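Same chain as my last thread, 592 residues:
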Amino acid sequence: MIDRATKLRFRRLYRRRRRQVEDLGVSAEENIELHFFKRLARLADVRRFVVAWLLLVLLLIGGVIFQAKALGKYYEVVKPQPGGVYTEGILGQFTDANPLYASGAVDSAVSRLLFSSLFRYDDQNKLVGDLAQSITADDKGVVYTVHLKPRILWHDGMALTSEDVAFTYKTIQNPDAKSSLGNSWQGITIATPDRSTVVFTLPNPFSAFPQTLTNGIVPQHLLNGIPVTRLRSIAFNTQDPIGSGPFKWEAVEVSGIDPADREQRIALVPNEQYYAGKPQLNKFIIRAFSDEKRLADSFSKQELTGAVGLTSVPEAGSKSYAQAYNIPLTGEVMVFFKSSDDIFADGKVRKALVMGANPGAIIQGLGFPVIVANEPLLKGQVGYDKTLVQAGFNVAAANSLLDSDGWLKNDKGIRVKGGHPLSFKLFSQSNSEYAYVTQALQKEWRAIGVDAQVILQQDTDLQTTISFHNYDALLYGVAIGSDPDVFAYWHSSQADVRSPNRLNLSEYKSSVADQALEAGRTRSDATLRTVKYRAFLDAWRNDAPALALYQPRFLYLTHGTVAGFKPDVMNASTDRFTNVQNWMIREGRVSK
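reply #2:
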């Protein structure tokens, strides 16, 4: 119980507190009135001062933010980033991804992206292992043993073994398979002592054998049960190819009915199990164009990341951010004189044509850089000898040689002998590069009294002309490769109509050259090979079966820079994909 005295004390305390609160409220009102509302009227007098301070504060804040950003960029660099879709336009048609049958620019590109090979060339044009970890040869250069890298898988997850390699090459050897690679594999036996080892036994020593192991390997577990005669037409080749390369098949799409408007799109996705690491690109799309103009237009509109098959940068494309890569190929552009023809059976005529041409002036007019070629071997190759190059440009010597040979000029300036004019048909491919070169040669040879009639053909027609040797002379580029074995182009056996490929385009026959070529390809020692090839080079220079001009170039066009693409020289156009798994087309800022 609270007594009455306590209640009175609490009541007095409550009243005292309430009066204090009331007094504080009145005091607060008086202070606000005095210090705020009465001074508010004077704000106009100091507004400039207040605004100035506010602007200064804002300026300081903005400066701090700007400096922070600037310092952030200082400690950052622009670097390539993974991702993006790479679209490459190629002039040609897609018909077959199977490396046993792939032909043409499109087929070869698709096959190279899908299928790995035992060996490949790196961006320095050195032969390195792809599926192969190592290769050894016996003392005679007849038995080659290849060891595979471990844990390589097909796109479907199955293990790739030596049995797949043996199956690939035995299929190539089978004449019923009708592979274009078959002729070079006859007589070679293939054994698989274990799942990671392949042994090749050659009928004769062949020092360039490792260079032949760059074709794609196909899966035995998918193709073994199919009759060899049907391999060319199976769905595996065009609808669902399974390889072990950096990219996997996704789909193919065809648009356009008219052949001139027809376009094919092949979509590939990264192989996440690729032994060299998953590709950095999200997708690789190849667009095959039948018409060069449509390819150029598509590149100019920046619908393509890269383009293959154009001879120059499209005019509209040159105004955009276009990058042109002029990459030398290990081959030679030559004029081959068919020595079985009456005119070119005369060695003095061939020599005069060589001396009557000025390769240096022709090269300067090409409009792009190339490497001069002056003998059947390339500069830097084993066997190349700068003292055994072809005869140089000398109009006076060419005229004198033809005069002494009985070829005299008539009133039209054309040389005639026995009532026959010194006239021949010069065939080549119909493109701007070869059109220029043939016209330049035509003019130079006309100056020494020779009538060269230029005939330019589309590629398909020209291939038929070459297959049947239906030409007098031929301006054409041939692939040599990193190894100097040019047996196929100059040995007399390769001029025979029964020869599988008949690549001796000059139909050149020389017992001295034959012996030297045979000896050179069987020696592995570089010094000894050089000695053996000297007799061939000397015979070739004296006989002049062809006019060497320059190494061809591979023109690769891209929009912007493709990080990771940096080949110095290539053996074939598909060598551009040597490190495609590292290509990147995106850029982003990262900390240093």
